Amino acid sequence: MKYALRGITAEELTYTINRVKMERNAKFEIKPQFSRTIRRVQENDKLYFVSLEVKVESTEAEPKPFNLKARLVGIFEAEEVNTDEDRQVLAISTTEIVYPYLRSAVSALTANAFINPLILPVIPAGTMFPEDRGEKNATLSFENPDMLN
Predict the structure, then answer these.
(1) Are strands 2-17 and 33-40 parallel, antiparallel or unpaired?
(2) pLDDT of the residue at 149
(3) How crowded is residue 97: how many other Cβ atoms within 10 Å of its Cβ?
(4) By residue range, what is the domain housing residue 49?
(5) CATH, residue 109
(6) What whole-number distance in Å separates Cα of residue 13 and Cα of residue 100?
(7) pTM for the full predicted model
(8) pLDDT of residue 100
(9) Fewer CB within 10 Å: N-end or C-end of the chain?
(10) Quick one: pLDDT at residue 24?
(11) Number of domains in the chain
(12) Where are the alpha helices (DSSP H) in the chain?
């Protein structure tokens, strides 16, 4: 299997401040939530769109000083993606390529909002999503042959 990055774009970058009362020296626990969608282009079965998204959302139970959503889409050309193993390798490899751009976008977005930049952790390839780790009850979705989750 061969693949190459053909482009990357920010599909959504949003930041909203929340007026949250907090005690002096209190700390917020920021727990980013990640999601991924991989779609194959029907008109060109060699093209794949890999969408990585991160969210930080405030709730009543867990207030956050801001809400954040960042979604980047990488465009990849891939050949010889024939088996489930090939699809899993493609999902992990393309995620590994797009994720540093997502980290950078989140850091820049928060820094440009004049707060301490949120720096997402470095996450080793193949460990970000349960299906990449091979956990029980977690598999890549092949219900629609053109979509991997």
Answers:
(1) unpaired
(2) 47
(3) 17
(4) 2-148
(5) 3.10.420.10
(6) 15
(7) 0.86
(8) 98
(9) N
(10) 81
(11) 1
(12) 84-112, 130-133
CA 98, CA 105: separation in Å to the nearest integer?
11
Amino acid at 45: D
Residue 21 token pair: 């009362």
Q: Are 35 and 17 in contact (CB under 8 A)?
A: no
| φ and ψ of 46, to 5 deg | -95, -10
User: Which of 11, 122, 133, 135 lies closest to 72 in space, CA to CA?
Assistant: 11
110-139 exposure pattern, b = at least 16 Cβ within 10 A, e = fewer: beeeeeeebebeeeeebebbebbeeeeeee
8 Å CB contact between 11 and 51:
yes
Where do the DSSP E strands lie in the chain? 2-17, 33-40, 47-56, 66-79, 147-148
Strand order in the sheet with 147-148: 2-17, 66-79, 47-56, 33-40, 147-148
Q: Which residues of the chain have pLDDT under 70?
A: 136-149
Q: Which two tokens stand for residue 88?
A: 């899993």
Distance CA 103, CA 132 (A): 19
Rounded-to-integer distance, Cα 54 and Cα 34, Å: 5
What integer pLDDT is reported at residue 137 of this predicted model?
59
